[in-house]
Write a structure and sequence with these properties.
- The structure holds two protein chains of two kinds.
- Chain A has a 26-stranded mixed β-sheet that branches.
- By secondary structure, chain A is mainly beta.
- In chain A, a hairpin with a 5-residue loop joins strand 11 and strand 12.
- Chain A has three helices and 30 strands.
- By secondary structure, chain B is mainly beta.
- Chain B has eight helices and 50 strands.
- In chain B, the strands form seven sheets. Chain B has a 22-stranded antiparallel β-barrel. In chain B, strands 3-2-5-6-8 form a five-stranded mixed β-sheet, with no helix packed on it. Chain B has a five-stranded mixed β-sheet with strand order 9-14-15-12-13.
- In chain B, strand 48 and strand 49 form a beta hairpin.
- In chain B, helix 5 runs antiparallel to helix 6.
- The radius of gyration of chain B is 30 Å and the shape is globular.
- Chain B starts with a helix and ends with a strand.
- The chains are: A mainly beta, B mainly beta.
- The interface between A and B is large, with 84 and 85 residues.
Chain lengths: ~475, ~950
């Protein structure tokens, strides 16, 4: 009898093991659907001329497969529901006049259009029919006859309602390990990575584009720039692009070699123009227009990790006009730091609390870049700047400037055709005037640049190139 | 309360009425420390007597007088205990009566009743004789040393360290490799980011004993590699016991300090919970986004706009701390227990109530952030990015209650129901001020945090023990259900700069410069259902040595819900809105209505992220078979195998994560174990060796694909749904010499090999600091432990003194993942391909000097603890990693009996006034990442005890 009981005891755990092995056959998770949704709906609104309009809307939800190669047509409004990627190998073509709207939300719910590495966007608007990327809250619509229905629009202080436009490419960065995840997207999303070794990479064409009211926090405290350019190569065309009322910077370059012309950064909440991680491109005809909420006109970083990474940031910029929020507001026109180099020629900076500052610290820094000729500031005009027009600034606890650093800077500033103007360098139409219309001018044989006989973004006495398509025209 | 008191009066009166008294004790096997079931207890020369029950315990009612008792058990030498004095209505405790296996000549051993109390405790015998390597502390030991909580008691165990007075680490291994059980059942952690349990939740007067297992055997859960700490609560108190303790404490840093930072909380904070004062207003539910407000307003609907305004104004507008000097720390505890006849059985009960209210804090701590900005050039110094003076104060309340009833139906069956409720709340106020270098505002930076966190643990345990088959088969089962809840109702984090550009300090609240003002609400509910069955069969092997075979099974189910919501103050029109003292006022808040759309002002916006909300569950089935088998009289073995099946399911609220009750871990693991113990010198010296395989599972928080911003490290920490469990192979050797009862010297060696250990890994591709939990390929740890505990009685003048020390040395290493290593080596070709395990101390030193004089009722204890530098934060490439530096803790406590039942105590903690420091060392200079002086603390206590002291 006792033996029997003992046997029973032996059996119990055997039964237990058998039971749990048997319940191992759980149903397999259903297959995951990664296809992108294109959901059609309609929206009725009363237009500016009191006519009732019914607009077609396509809401795009990317569940992994991206937009695919397709064309977004101007007869519909395309609504971004969350992050919408143009995946590697795909080309998204956007017709002139198309309106794209971002849904509300932040963090991982933020809406943004992201062209991943190896993807391409062909968005060629025209001055008459620009492509508009804006918030869902912006009543702007295109009527069936092709004309706009602005519906009153949103004010320049309405920011951060959606994400922005992000281009990611294969051009080189100076950060380690040479590819990085764009701000706000965790490294676990491979489509958020940029950087490589193809400096001639081509991410497509952006022409006559207006990006409005974006810049929400797209994740863990990262506000997004109006147009973010991560590792974008020189094969890409970017001309006539406006960022209007973005919560963060207007434009930011993260490494790469892309060249840009005719940019407007207006009413943005942070810096006008920003570069980082070793951007080595070119720029001409940049217009930054800032109000009281903004920060620097230009924030220029060399590297992040490491700060002295190669290749150095050495972009060349001609004909920039940076209009700050006023000398009383204490903001800086341009900061070069973290070992950034770069060149400004024939440019105008006005309405800032402080002028240009160049960071000095122990080790490789922007001051060294200036000493080595990788940072140039020539034939520019400062006007209505409260203090510190061109300074070397010691950074960090207990760091002191080398002897004569500031004296050398003063000598350099004066010797390179720079002027602290006493008369306004722009006229009522923001065209060059007074000192800005007079030499000396930097000239270059680089075919990318147009040699001008004026300083700043706009020639005197002609229509501004922003006319007809840029939202800022309503505010000037 | 009154009726409870009446109940005891009645019980006492009933006992007094009879002219009999009670004798109680426990009969144990001298050789093993195990209870002897069915031993006979006889009043000498009479037929009056009883037999011991399944706990080895007996109760005898005897007439008043002095008696002699005889204890006998088959094949054991009979023991006679003389001078057993029985008083009317009182319980005489004999303690543990030890019987030895019969040797040929000796018939009977005679001892006096007093002598039975001065021997080694059963736990000490278990420790000495058990085949498994354990460390145990009995209730007697807590009482002897005057340890107030489980955390305090555990500090004296070899290789253990207690962090922050709460969390216990074994052999310096991270909390991932330690585990805590209550009466053998799982209890969930209250901290979602930690694996371990807050040990200060357990007042020592509820605890019967604590056993620390350092080696896995198949009857234990397989998910510990450092140590398993099992806390057993009392079930059948031997006599009526009643204790009241009151105490008070003083730390000059906090108590009566007029600079103590605090803020207005709720009227029930003193009870350990918020009464709803910190809840977010109703209007915050479904808060419309600015886009929705604009769309609605454009259509003439201003209700959403109004909701945003009202929610903004409805939030508690306190954003900055105030100062108020707190009173002294105070605590109180009450416990009682007894056993009584109930029908034909015995009913045991205990109940306790504990309240503790304490204040702590520091001023002028340091928060620093540094970076090697030119790693290839190896500059003279690290660049300081942030240097703040840190002032932080907290106010903590712990309220705990426990009721437990046990029924011993007869000598073979008992059942216990245990109900526990612990409630704790902590209010924190912090103010940091200093410089953030590189910000565009050239002035001081200020940061303020107001936080409250409450935790509740409710547990019901049903436990049973049975013996049958001539006491040769023991069955134990348990079923425990625990609900633990954590709530941070409203964490407020605000920062600003003070610009001095115009000469006048002006606060600038500029969200673009740093994190915008934010309010968090986080909650976690976790249920935990743990079921265990164990069967043991005892028999004699071929040469007559007692052996056993054990089988069992277990099922554990855990469910967690985690919610994280956060709101930020947005100020798109910027403009200066003054300071945080009057931030949320009608003047500052964006009021939207028909007339005033887009006016200036602040408003709140919902920044909660769907990916930070999750539900998760895990099922673990276990089954085992093992044997404890002496191979000879001196060589004993224990071996067996446990199978554990793990199924972890996860649901993320973010549809993009595509995790909907998806199975992330599905594994069946055989966990073998074998141990040998060889008795080199009879009763005195052992050599032990063991091998086992154990498992470490990722926590829910680690598999959750959430990206939570960690304010302390200024970094994003991301979970990883692809994490798999870690398998650990453990090898242990130990030499031990018990030269006197309770006096020991031992030397151990251990080796642990980790396959796919889970580590927090820095992601070099992230634009901002980002860490992710990853399985790195391999890791290992090996170490030496040395322990000595010795009485100084050989020096006559020091006969009441004893000293003890234990030293642990550990070398650990873990592989650095390939892409991180490549990045490191690009800058420093000599960068090491390994680093120590996270949170692993290279050495731990504990020491104590103890004075115990039973006659005068004086007890004093001086103890010292230090741990070697531990890796806390893996830094950006080229910048040194952050290590927590050794904290030299020296504590003293003395207690004195002042009258019958009354005892007073005085203690000083952190006598050396040590500094807590986390540093990065570069070119032999320590850069302080986080530093503070917790200060010395003094406490006074008074206790009144009836019954066992």
């Amino acid at each position: 009898m006792r033996n029997f009981k003992f046997l029973l005891l032996l059996l119990l755990p055997v039964l237990a093991i058998a039971t749990f092995t048997a319940c191992g056959d759980d149903p397999v998770d259903p297959p995951v659907d990664n296809s992108t949704l294109f959901e059609e709906s309609t929206y009725s609104l009363t237009c500016d001329d009191a006519a009732d309009v019914t607009a077609k809307i396509i809401t795009v939800t990317d569940r992994g497969e991206g937009t695919g190669t397709m064309t977004w047509t101007a007869d519909k409004a395309w609504v971004l529901n969350g992050f919408v990627f143009v995946n590697e190998g795909q080309t998204l073509t956007i017709e002139p006049g198309t309106v794209i709207k971002g849904k509300s939300g932040q963090g991982e719910k933020a809406s943004a259009l992201i062209v991943a590495r190896g993807g391409r966007i062909i968005a060629e608007g025209t001055a008459a029919d620009p492509i508009i990327l804006t918030s869902e809250a912006d009543p702007v619509f295109r009527k069936p006859d092709g004309s706009y229905c602005s519906g009153g629009g949103l004010s320049p202080s309405t920011r951060g309602l959606w994400g922005g436009l992000i281009l990611l490419g294969k051009a080189g960065l100076n950060s380690t390990p040479g590819e990085t995840s764009i701000e706000g997207i965790p490294t676990t999303e491979p489509r958020g990575l940029y950087g490589g070794s193809d400096d001639a990479d081509n991410s497509g064409i952006l022409k006559y584009i207006s990006i409005r009211h974006g810049g929400t926090d797209i994740g863990a405290g990262n506000e997004i720039n109006g147009l973010s350019l991560g590792g974008v190569g020189s094969g890409t065309t970017i001309d006539y692009v406006e960022v209007f009322a973005n919560a963060d910077d207007g434009f930011e370059y993260f490494g790469g070699t892309v060249q840009t012309k005719h940019l407007v950064s207006a009413f943005c909440g942070d810096d006008g123009m920003d570069y980082d991680e070793g951007w080595r491109g070119k720029g001409q005809f940049w217009f930054v227009y800032q109000d009281g909420d903004a920060d620097r006109g230009g924030e220029h970083d060399g590297g992040t990790n490491p700060e002295d990474g190669m290749p150095y940031a050495t972009p060349v910029i001609y004909n920039a006009s940076y209009r700050g929020s006023g000398s009383a507001n204490g903001k800086r026109a341009v900061t070069f730091r973290d070992n950034a180099g770069g060149e400004y020629h024939n440019s105008i900076f006005w309405g800032y609390g402080r002028g240009v500052d160049i960071e000095y610290l122990d080790g490789q820094c922007s001051y060294n870049q200036w000493q080595n000729g990788n940072l140039k500031f020539e034939n520019n005009i400062l006007f209505d700047v409260a203090a510190s027009d061109f300074v070397i600034r010691a950074e960090g606890d207990g760091v002191t400037l080398p002897a004569n650093a500031q004296t050398d800077a003063d000598t350099y500033f004066a010797g390179k055709g720079n002027v602290i103007a006493t008369d306004a360098p722009v006229d009522a139409n923001y065209g060059a005037s007074n000192d800005a219309a007079n030499g000396p001018f930097s000239t270059t044989s680089d075919p990318f640049f147009t040699n001008t006989n004026y300083k700043g973004a706009f020639a005197p006495g002609t229509d501004r190139w922003t006319k007809g398509w840029a939202r800022i025209e309503d505010e000037l | 309360m009154r009726s409870l008191f009446t109940f005891f009066i009645v019980l006492l009166a009933g006992a007094l009425a009879a002219q009999v008294g009670t004798v109680r004790g426990t009969v144990i096997d001298d050789a093993s420390g195990m209870e002897l079931i069915g031993a006979t207890v006889l009043l000498e020369d009479t037929g009056t007597g009883t037999v011991t029950d399944l706990d080895g315990s007996f109760t005898l009612e005897l007439p008043v007088g002095v008696h002699t008792l005889q204890f006998s058990y088959v094949s054991f030498a009979t023991k006679t205990v003389t001078d057993v004095e029985v008083k009317a209505g009182e319980v005489t405790l004999l303690g543990e009566v030890r019987l030895s296996e019969e040797l040929v000549e000796i018939a009977t051993v005679v001892v006096t009743a007093r002598a039975t109390q001065n021997t080694e405790t059963a736990i000490q015998t278990l420790q000495r004789k058990g085949i498994n390597t354990i460390d145990g502390i009995s209730n007697q030991a807590f009482n002897l040393r005057g340890d107030g909580t489980a955390a305090a008691a555990l500090r004296r165990v070899t290789g253990l360290s207690v962090e922050g007075g709460k969390y216990v680490y074994v052999r310096g291994l991270g909390d991932r490799y330690s585990k805590t059980t209550l009466n053998g059942s799982n209890i969930p952690g209250l901290d979602p980011d930690k694996n371990t349990v807050q040990m200060d939740l357990f007042p020592s007067n509820l605890i019967d004993n604590i056993i620390v297992y350092k080696n896995f055997t198949p009857n234990l859960p397989g998910d510990f590699s450092g140590g398993l700490i099992d806390i057993s609560t009392k079930d059948f108190p031997e006599a009526f016991m009643f204790q009241v303790r009151v105490g008070t404490g003083y730390n000059p840093n906090s108590n009566f300090n007029k600079n103590f930072l605090t803020y207005q909380g709720s009227s029930t904070d003193w009870l350990g919970f918020d009464n709803g004062t910190r809840d977010f207003p109703q209007q915050i539910q479904g808060l419309p986004s600015p886009t929705e407000v604009i769309i609605a307003s454009n259509q003439g609907n201003f209700a959403p706009a109004g909701q945003v305004t009202n929610a903004t104004l409805g939030l508690n507008n306190i954003l900055t701390p105030t100062t108020k000097a707190p009173i002294a720390d105070h605590n109180f505890s009450l416990s009682l227990g007894n056993q009584t006849k109930l029908g034909s059985g015995i009913f045991g009960y205990i109940a306790s109530l504990t309240y503790d209210h304490s204040y702590s804090g520091y001023a002028n701590g340091t928060t620093g952030r540094y970076k090697n900005i030119s790693p290839s050039g190896l500059p003279e110094a690290l660049n300081t990015e942030r240097l703040l003076s840190d002032n932080r104060y907290s106010n903590a309340v712990l309220l705990g209650g426990m009721v437990s009833g046990s029924m011993k139906f007869n000598n073979s069956n008992k059942v216990t129901l245990n109900l526990i409720r612990n409630q704790s709340g902590q209010s924190d106020a912090r103010y940091q001020e200093g410089r953030v270098f590189g910000s565009s505002i050239n002035g001081a930076y200020q940061e303020r945090t107001l936080a409250y966190e409450q935790r509740a643990l409710s547990s019901a345990q049903l436990l049973g023990s049975h013996v049958f088959g001539d006491n040769r088969v023991k069955a134990k089962w348990s079923s425990s259900y625990t609900l633990s809840q954590m709530l941070q109702p409203d964490l407020r984090f605000v920062n600003n700069f003070v610009d001095t550009i115009s000469g006048v300090p002006t606060p600038i609240i500029d969200p673009a410069e740093d994190i915008p003002p934010t309010r968090f609400r986080r909650s976690m509910n976790e249920s935990n259902w743990d079921n265990n069955v164990d069967l043991s069969y005892f028999f004699r092997q071929w040469s007559g040595e007692s052996a056993s075979i054990k089988f069992g099974g277990s099922f554990l189910n855990k469910n967690r819900e985690f919610r994280d919501t956060l709101y930020r103050y947005m100020n798109p029109n910027a403009g200066n809105v003054g300071n945080f003292d009057d931030y949320v006022t009608a003047n500052n808040v964006w009021t939207w209505n028909e007339e005033q759309v887009n006016t200036q002002g602040i408003f709140i916006q919902d920044f909660s992220e769907a990916r930070n909300q999750y539900d998760s569950r895990i099922n673990i089935f276990g089954a085992y078979a093992m044997t404890e088998l002496p191979l000879s009289q001196r060589l004993k073995s224990i071996f067996g195998v446990r199978m554990e099946k793990t199924d972890l399911y996860f649901t993320s609220f973010d549809p993009a994560k595509k995790l909907n009750d998806s199975k992330l871990i599905n594994a069946i693991d055989p966990l073998p174990s074998a141990a040998l113990i060889y008795e080199v010198m009879k009763e005195k010296m052992n050599i032990r060796g063991s091998y086992s395989r154990t498992i470490a599972r990722p926590t829910f928080r680690e598999v959750a694909p959430i990206a939570l911003f960690d304010v302390v490290n200024n970094a994003i920490i991301i979970g990883n749904p692809n994490l798999q469990r870690t398998l650990i192979d453990n090898i242990d050797f130990r030499w031990e010499y018990f030269f006197r009862p309770g006096q020991v010297i031992s030397l151990s060696f251990f080796y642990k090999s980790f396959q796919n250990p889970i580590e927090l890994v820095f992601s070099p591709m992230a634009p901002n600091k980002e860490w992710q939990y990853q399985n790195v390929s391999n890791g290992s740890a090996y170490g030496l432990e040395f322990e000595i505990q010795k009485s100084l009685e050989f020096i006559p003048a020091l006969r009441d003194f004893s000293i003890g020390t234990n030293l642990t040395y550990v070398y650990s290493q873990v592989d650095i993942p390939a892409n991180e290593l490549a990045a490191r080596q690009k800058l420093d070709p000599n960068a090491s391909s390994t680093r120590p395990l996270f949170n692993q101390s290279p050495y731990i030193v504990n020491g104590f000097l103890q004075y115990i004089n039973r006659e005068s009722g004086t007890r004093a204890n001086l103890s010292y603890n230090v741990q070697g530098p531990r890796l806390k934060v893996v830094s950006l490439i080229g910048t040194p990693d952050v290590y927590e530096q050794p904290f030299h803790g020296l504590d003293f406590k003395i207690s004195q009996r002042i009258a019958k039942g009354f005892s007073a105590s005085f203690a000083v903690n952190n006598i050396l006034d040590s500094q807590f420091r986390e540093t990065q060392t570069y070119r032999d200079i320590d850069y302080i990442f986080q530093g503070r002086m917790p200060g010395r603390s003094f406490s006074l206590g008074l206790s009144y005890t009836i019954g066992q002291e």
